[in-house]
Amino acid sequence: KQEVTQIPAALSVPEGENLVLNCSFTDSAIYNLQWFRQDPGKGLTSLLLIQSSQREQTSGRLNASLDKSSGRSTLYIAASQPGDSATYLCAVRAGGNTPLVFGKGTRLSVIA
Amino acid sequence: ETGVTQSPTHLIKTRGQQVTLRCSSQSGHNTVSWYQQALGQGPQFIFQYYREEENGRGNFPPRFSGLQFPNYSSELNVNALELDDSALYLCASSLQRPANSYEQYFGPGTRLTVT
Prior knowledge:
Helix content of chain A: under 10%
Radius of gyration of chain A: 13 Å
Number of strands of chain B: 11
Order of helices and strands of chain A: EEEEEEEEEEE
Oligomer: heterodimer
Structural class of chain A: mainly beta
Largest interface: A-B, 26 and 31 residues
Shape of chain B: globular
Structural class of chain B: mainly beta
Largest sheet of chain A: 6 strands, mixed
Number of strands of chain A: 11
Number of helices of chain B: 0
Distance between the termini of chain B: 38 Å
Strand content of chain B: over 45%
Distance between the termini of chain A: 41 Å
Helix content of chain B: under 10%
Strand content of chain A: over 45%
Shape of chain A: globular
Order of helices and strands of chain B: EEEEEEEEEEE
């Protein structure tokens, strides 16, 4: 059974700092991996999707990497801003038509 | 392009009652998935509907049931509500096509409180 773990559970950083969020999964046979952002009490916003054949994806200040063989992904946020404060969730999919398996998320606070 | 919408936004029910949550999928999407997210947890998969048929189910009891309609909108029904059913219920739509990576797009969720 696939399990996804995110470390740390919570993180507080000063504005402008670069930071890394970690995600690990137990079964390396994944189809793709997604990073989501969730504001309190709200739905999920997809940030980046990495196919199993890819090593990384970039969008603006965000960069996600994938090391499938070691079961790890990282989300790098450059020059953090208070508006980045949210919970970041990592999720993996085993096959094309299979559900997402989520971690519990990392709650990020960026202090002005 | 219209995104995924869910109704109602918030709902308060009493233990033992029944509830129906609704979801309208993103335009052109033929698959709907439902997830339950308890406070402080990641979303847990409930079930998925593709072309009006359930084609995947997570570890949830039969009192959780669903429907998908010809226009691909969907309903989640929960009977005999329990206190532990209090959660944010998320609907996600997708297009079953490898070219789209089966990427799921989530709605804003329905917050259900059972008292």
